[in-house]
Amino acid sequence: VSKRLTPVNKIDQSEPYRFLLSTVHGIQDNYNQQNAISLKEILSVEHGQLIRSAQFNYMFDIEFLLEQYPLEFRLKPLLIVHGDSRHDNQSIKNQCSPYPQIEICPARLDIPFGTHHTKMMFLLYETGLRIVIHTANLILQDWRQKTQGIWISPICPKTNDDRESKTNFKKDLLEYIERYRARQLQFWQKTINEHDFSSINVHLISSTPGRHTGPDLNKFGHLKLRQTLKNYLNLDKDEQYNSSPIIGQFSSIGSLGPNANSWLTKEFLTSLKQLSSSSLESPELKLIYPTVENVRTSLEGYMAGGSLPYNMQNAMRQTWLVNYLHRWKADHRHRSQASPHIKTYLRATNDQFKDILWFLVTSANLSKAAWGVLEKNNTQLMIRSYEIGVLYTPKQFSKATFSLPDSPSFPIPYDLPPVKYQTSDKPWIVDVAYKDKPDSHGNMWDPS
Ligand SMILES: O=C(O)c1cnc2c(C(=O)O)cccc2c1O
Fold first, then answer.
1. For this structure, is 25 an active site residue?
2. Taking 90 as the threshold, does the pLDDT of residue 408 lie above it?
3. Is 309 in the pocket of ligand 1 (CB under 6 A)?
4. b/e per residue 169-204 (b: at least 16 CB within 10 A)
5. What letter does residue 253 receive in the DSSP assignment?
6. pTM value > 0.95
């Protein structure tokens, strides 16, 4: 097969990782060229003749979304998959009613406080099917001046035999879709089945609402991550990594309990630290979440904090968490002022952070609702929300580790090693007033 000499577009240029950040309005353009893409560019005519698409998300501005499709594709059938109650059905129905080409699919949320966080696109072209898994709501604010993460699959060609990926991505994606039990998704289940996923080299890590047990225990949430790391990391002499550091980076935090052992370091870290062989060591967990100063000095100013919904009720009950927190800093991507809405988790080989063992980009924040909490003596995992993300493991790229000084190195979205909160640093809390210092727009923040 003739190798392309010059990749024709940003998506091909992002090979082999296909992990891009959203473009940022207001930074030097060359930082929007490398491994960065806009929603319009994702939906561009340059990728082929679109037949129909599906958009899974939490927040929708339908006018904004349609504007991002090329003119000639705006009347193609579009399926909107949203949370049935959280952002009330009515607003979606009202937004979509002027457009006969739009079909709506409410995701059932049977467990209280669950949300449909999943952000995913199915793009069916005449040449095949593309999957996009990302972290941005379908509203202008999410695509303008934030740091968002985007995985874009190759266009998977139609096939007569069931071509699966080495990572069982097709099977896992169909399992995920099945959980909606929605007739509006039957077309897409059939379509996914008919396409060749053999070129996909990432693992699917998803969450669906439910009390998963028995054969389903390791299918979703942090137990799926644990199982996948156990099965696919197969690093030789992996005991050398038992104490290597783990990073969690997110845009919101749930109620994690009265101390770290309640869930974070006992249950969640046990899954994150999994290697092919298990170990009793407890690696260092470093958490990245914006400080008030990160938000105040961001391109959006305090408004960025509207998308960082960590509330006072949770924060005041878990002051112990601050000891794990690190600042948002992304100078090497020119995005220290592009407030993070991306969520990522990774493990480094050591505290020099020159190589990483795995990388996950996902919709899942640091919460039990997203990742699940073990119940009934660890025999069932209770998850409230829909989440989806993709995991990179080195073997799938014929590597022992992802070496960062390499070229092309894995495009990590923030600076490593992460910078610990200083004593003056406070985590951003959305329902607190900040009136002592104006933000980058000269405004204060007074939620009352
Ligand atoms: O991206 C998301 O899935 C997501 C979910 N929830 C929220 C909330 C909230 O739930 O109160 C507030 C502000 C932003 C978000 C947000 O961006």
1. no
2. no
3. yes
4. bbebbebbbebbebeebebbeebbebbbbbebbbbb
5. B
6. yes
